[in-house]
Amino acid sequence: MSEAVRIFRNMVNERGDGLRELHFNVLKQLAQPTEFVAVGNRRGKVSIIINHLPSGGILVVVQGFLKHRFLPMVWSVALDGFYKYPDETMAPMTREDMYSFD
């Protein structure tokens, strides 16, 4: 893994860690922004996705794409995600849900 990809993945994970600190009601109403970033000379984007679950909880996903250095149609993908519930409990994102965002 290149240094740029490592830095980018850390960037995505840090955003996920920050979101975990927010209260359920704040996350539930959070706008779903996309941030455009640069790591060295590589451009990318990081999006926050909030999916409401039938159980009343939410799935919070931080999804990042970083352009490949030499191949313009190839992207490195970084994901972080978790479930949060009205009682403020959390659970890690399932592998199945992780694959649906890839």
Blueprint of the fold:
Elements: H1 3-20, H2 24-28, E1 34-39, E2 42-52, E3 58-67, E4 75-84, E5 90-92, H3 95-100
Antiparallel strand pairs: 1-2, 2-3, 3-4, 4-5
Quickly list its features.
single chain, 102 residues, alpha+beta, 5-stranded antiparallel beta sheet, 5 strands
Q: Any idea what the radius of gyration is?
A: 14 Å
Shape: elongated
What count of structural domains? 1
Strand content: 35-45%
- The share of residues in helices is 25-40%
> Given the structure, what is the number of helices?
3
Structural overview:
The chain has 102 residues and is α+β, with helices and mostly antiparallel strands. The chain has one domain (3-100). 28% of the residues lie in helices and 39% in strands. It contains three helices and five strands; from the N terminus they run ααβββββα. A five-stranded antiparallel β-sheet has the order 1-2-3-4-5. A hairpin with a 7-residue loop joins strand 3 (58-67) and strand 4 (75-84). The longest helix is centred in the first third of the chain and has 18 residues, at 3-20. It is elongated and about 45 Å long. The model has no long low-confidence stretch (mean pLDDT 92).
